[in-house]
Design a protein that fits this description.
heterodimer; A: two-stranded antiparallel ribbon; 14 helices; 2 strands; globular; B: alpha+beta; Beta-lactamase; 7-stranded mixed sheet; 23 strands; about 35% helix; about 20% strand
Chain lengths: ~375, ~650
């Protein structure tokens, strides 16, 4: 008993030393993330109409996320890999809890743990690629049909739970993270083609199971003017905000669309439109370039990772991160339907920011424990 | 799991991963380029379009309706003003179930069926985001009740506005008219920019005639609003320019005295200043309260007015056509002199009946055996029909018409009021239009005494008389003396039309005027005694027109007043002071037995009000001796 306690305490001591010793994080990625957070806070302060409480709340979450990032970056990927199934099942379990007693505006996405309210579905954005990477790590790659089927189940079960909430956008993004892992594992192109074909065939069936409001969103996306005061309002007002911003923008806190509340959800899902309105095309391109750099850096770290798990995880996380950006950007510019996807690290929202920074902590850890060949 | 087993695979796997990562990155960058391209499209190519829409989003144009111009009488009494009131406005866009909302609302603010009917009508005329008035002139308690319950009625609000008010009520109903809510017909002719935000427009009378200058120029405000349309600040304010004020020629005192003189008997009277055409009084009895119409008259009130047998909505003074009867005689006489058919001293023998040569049907005098041999002055004084029968017959209808039309008979006088009637000047051309029958010589004869097809409005009569009184010079009658831009701005006189000279021989005119003096001062005159106690001399002429033509040749023996009042229309025309006329009056009484006994006293009361009760500063000098021109053409004048 004593020996076990001693072993445990020694282990905890070593782990603690590892975590709190001089951080070995990837500087370019860290700087890019800091710049992104700074841009995010600047835009949020304007979008919230100089609301100090919101600014401080978001900054606090960034700090929590940063601490988590540094902490996780000290944990070796082997250990993370060992914890992966627990994390995955914990997040899926939380999804089930949300289904039973969750709360939220019209949709049950939120879990209220006293001081902490969070969306378990956001956790899946990290646990999903981890789990798929964990499953594929010991297998022969490219994956065979049997493995594809298992991975498919790992993806579909939580995604279906999130669709039930209902939150189609997050479900698709969570699934995308898993699919990217499969893709990076070297899934043959012809299999990809076959699955895409099957998906296209299944689309009409899926349409049948969509909620009315989800169908509405898709229809409104196809014809925004058909309901200019209802669902189409978001898209129209967002495009007006972006379009009226022009090349140079209207200037910080001079965006009339957001300040006068024509733009709905302007601190959360539609914050990109605020940026587009106030900082113009220049601001949009700078932000997109910053995201591209972050994703590129993630893929570079993945390519230099030591094992399959790390490679697949870092790569899938990076690509999924990019998908969030593209889906959000497509949504606010009227290219894609309104799917309620936040702009990563810019939109106001705690769970998303903390989870993403934790994810970058994993990427940092993979970087810190990369193979020493380069 | 075993690194040793993994290693051989590791390299190929790593290479494969590298290719996949590049492929993934390429796909992502392609998607990124699409998104970036979309932003370029929106922010560079479509920038202008979206800028406009962003501006349209946040800036609302708020119309500021101009206050309507005020209307004053000759002495500066306020006849039409604007008073602050409150109304209930509804924005249809914000109401989901209109009928249910109206149902609930009527429990808070009583809504009549009229209110709801009119509201639904105006709903069709407005775009859904424009506010539509539901109920005007809320009472204090209605406003209080709504204020407490306002939270239940999003999209319904209390709006302050200015409503038209006519302090003198019915007194000027037929002159000033009234404003009413803009309806579909109004919308077709009104300039939408000038009437944006305005709810009322002149419907009748001066309110309609002078709509253009009474209305004013609307202002506007550019207001920045948020998505809830809540105004945040005013970006630009352009004040409305109030409508111009009107100063009328009408004197409220005279108007009131005239109405009182009628004592409710249907009829009309017009008084004109012969020197310039100023209309001093224009009265129609019965009248109605124009205030009822301002915010929408109720169905009940309206049908009461329509069903009234006395037709209070008919503007008798300028639309009521009456046969002029004997009041036309001075003009026929003047025509005879001017056209050279008679001299003032020429006499005609009145035997009681006039026959057209070759016809057996007789045309009667009022006196059974005639008035004997009379000249023009006596013919007018005693209203001798035969004199005018023979004169009209001699002149012929064409010449008679040509001359009388210069005095304005048979066509509108051109007064500044809408929808004036021109009456009927009987002529063969006119008859051809309404009937297949030819013109009979007998019709010429009775036209000479103002019977037959004749229709004259009191306004036409007053206008013609004024020309007679003013030395044959006709001034177009008018009601508006001056306008002004505001209470502090100077009055700008309205330039009247230039006068037209209608007669050429002053002696002809003098003879006719002498005959009219005789009517009042000769003991045989038909209005003898009317001038008693009046400081100035009055020249007048009575008229008693038949409402129905006689069916038999026999004299009617029923002389009772009630019977005659049913059959006759009583006229009296006069001007005073006779030597330098300042007022010309025409009175038509629908239920008068005789012009002299029934219509003339009304005219006398008007003269009293105008000349005897005029403030001394405006009173003409009283002639010391009235006998200076006491005899013209040998007729003695009695007082």
């Amino acid at each position: 008993m004593n020996a076990l306690a001693a072993t445990l305490s020694t282990r905890a001591y070593r782990l603690g030393r590892r975590i709190f010793s001089r951080p070995r994080i990837d500087l370019p990625l860290a700087v890019a993330l800091c710049v992104l957070a700074a841009i995010g806070l600047t835009v949020l302060y304007s979008a919230s109409d100089l609301n100090n409480a919101m600014l401080l709340g978001q900054a606090t979450r960034f700090l929590i996320g940063a601490v988590l990032l540094v902490a996780i970056s000290r944990i070796p990927p082997t250990l993370l890999r060992a914890w992966t199934p627990w994390f995955y099942f914990l997040s899926v379990g939380l999804l089930l809890v949300v289904m039973v007693l969750g709360e939220g505006r019209g949709a049950t996405r939120w879990l209220d743990l006293g001081a902490l309210r969070f969306q378990p579905s956001e956790l899946l954005k990290l646990s999903m690629p981890m789990m798929v990477a964990w499953y594929l790590h010991p297998r022969r790659l490219p994956p065979r049909w049997r493995d594809i089927l298992v991975v498919g189940l790992l993806i579909v079960i939580p995604s279906a739970l999130i669709v039930k909430q209902p939150d189609l956008g997050t479900a698709l993004l969570v699934a995308a993270a898993g699919v990217f892992a499969l893709f990076l594992a070297g899934l043959q192109w012809w299999k990809i083609g076959a699955m895409l074909g099957a998906l296209a065939a299944a689309a009409p069936v899926a349409w049948h199971f969509l909620h009315d409001y989800q169908r509405e969103r898709v229809l409104t996306f196809l014809h925004p003017e058909r309901d200019p005061l209802g669902s189409g309002w978001h898209i129209i007002q967002s495009m007006i905000a972006v379009g009226s911003g022009g090349i140079l923008g209207k200037g910080w806190h001079h965006g009339t669309q957001s300040r006068l509340e024509f733009l709905p959800e302007h601190t959360t899902d539609f914050i990109f439109a605020v940026l587009g309105e106030e900082f113009g095309l220049i601001g949009v391109l700078v932000l997109l370039a910053l995201y591209a750099f972050i994703v590129g850096r993630c893929l570079w770290i993945a390519a230099n990772a030591r094992d399959t798990y790390s490679r697949i995880l870092a790569g899938a996380f990076g690509l999924a991160f990019f998908v969030y950006v593209i889906v959000n950007g497509g949504m606010i510019s009227g290219l894609l339907p309104v799917v309620g996807v936040p702009l990563p690290l810019v939109s106001y929202g705690g769970t998303s920011a903390v989870t993403l920074l934790a994810g970058f902590g994993v990427v940092m850890s993979i970087h810190a424990h990369r193979k020493w060949v380069a | 799991m075993n690194p040793r087993r993994e290693l051989p695979d590791g390299r190929t796997e790593s290479a494969r991963f590298g290719r996949r990562a590049l492929a993934g990155l390429a796909i992502m960058l392609a998607a990124l380029l699409v998104v970036a391209g979309r932003f370029v499209y929106l922010q560079v190519y479509e920038h202008g379009e979206y800028s406009t829409r962003a501006q349209a989003n946040r800036v609302r144009l708020r119309h500021l309706p101009p206050p309507r111009g005020l209307i004053y009488d000759r002495e500066g009494k306020l006849l039409a003003d604007n008073v602050p009131a409150f109304r209930l406005d509804v924005v249809p866009d914000k109401i989901r179930h209109m009928d249910a909302m109206l149902q609930r609302l009527s429990a808070v603010v009583p809504l009549t069926d009229d209110d709801i009917r009119r509201f639904k009508q105006s709903l069709k005329q407005h775009r859904p985001f424009e506010s539509v008035p539901l109920k005007f002139r809320l009472t204090e308690s209605e406003m209080d009740r709504f204020a407490v319950n306002a939270w239940q009625f999003p999209g319904v609000s209390i709006q302050p506005y200015l409503t038209r008010n006519y302090p003198y009520g019915p007194e000027f109903a037929h002159v000033i008219g009234y404003v009413g809510r803009i309806d579909e017909n109004d919308l077709k002719r009104l300039d939408p920019d000038r009437y944006a935000g305005t709810t009322h427009v002149g419907k009748t009378g001066l309110e309609k005639q002078y709509e253009d200058i009474l209305h004013g120029t609307p202002g506007y405000e550019l207001v920045e609003v948020n998505a809830a349309q809540r105004p945040l600040r005013v970006l630009q304010h352009v004040a409305a320019k109030p409508g111009e004020n009107l100063y009328l020629t009408i004197d409220e005192r005279l108007q009131r005295a005239t109405i009182a003189a009628f004592d409710g008997r249907p009829g009309a009277a017009v008084a004109i200043d012969p020197r310039n055409g100023d209309v001093l009084a224009m009265v129609t009895v019965p009248d109605f309260d124009p205030n009822l119409f301002v915010n929408g008259i109720s169905q009940g009130d309206y049908s009461a007015l329509l069903d009234d047998p006395d037709k209070p909505l008919l503007n008798r003074a300028m639309r009521g056509g009456y046969p002029p009867g004997s009041t036309i005689k001075p003009f026929i006489g003047l025509a005879g002199l001017e056209l050279g058919f008679r001299n003032p001293s020429d006499t005609v023998l009145s035997t009681g009946t006039f026959y057209i040569p070759g016809y057996s049907r007789g045309f009667r005098d009022d006196q059974r055996y005639g008035a004997g041999r009379v000249d023009l002055v006596q013919a007018i004084t005693q209203s001798v029909n035969t004199y005018f029968y023979s004169l009209a017959y001699k002149m012929g209808i064409q010449r008679l018409d040509a001359f009388l039309s210069t005095f304005g008979f048979g066509r509108p006088t051109g007064i500044d009021l809408p929808d004036e009637s021109g009456g009927v000047l009987p002529s063969p051309e006119w008859k051809r239009k309404i009937s297949r029958e030819p013109w009979f010589p007998g019709e010429t004869v009775i036209a000479g005494i103002g019977q037959g097809y004749w229709m004259v409005t009191p306004l036409q009569m007053a206008h013609a008389l004024a020309a007679l009184a003013d030395g044959g010079e006709a001034h177009t009658p008018h009601l508006v003396r001056a306008t002004s831009d505001g209470p502090d701005s100077p009055e700008l006189p309205v330039t009247p039309d230039p006068p037209r000279q209608l007669t050429h021989a002053p002696a002809d005119l003098a003879a006719v005027r002498q005959g009219m003096l005789g009517v009042v001062y000769d003991p045989r005159g038909t209005a003898y005694g009317l001038g008693d106690g009046f400081p100035y001399r009055i020249a007048g002429k009575t008229g008693t027109a038949e409402r129905y033509s006689r069916t038999t040749n026999a004299y009617n023996t029923d002389k009772s007043h009630a019977y005659l009042a049913k059959r006759h229309r009583a006229w009296f025309i006069c001007y005073a002071p006779a030597d330098h006329p300042q007022i010309a009056i025409a009175v038509a009484l629908e239920a008068g037995a005789w012009g002299g006994s029934d219509a003339a006293p009304i005219a006398r009361k008007m003269l009293d009000a105008w000349l005897a009760e005029t403030p001394p500063s405006q009173r003409p000098p009283v002639p010391v001796t009235a006998s200076a021109e006491g005899t013209v053409a040998g007729v003695p004048v009695t007082r």
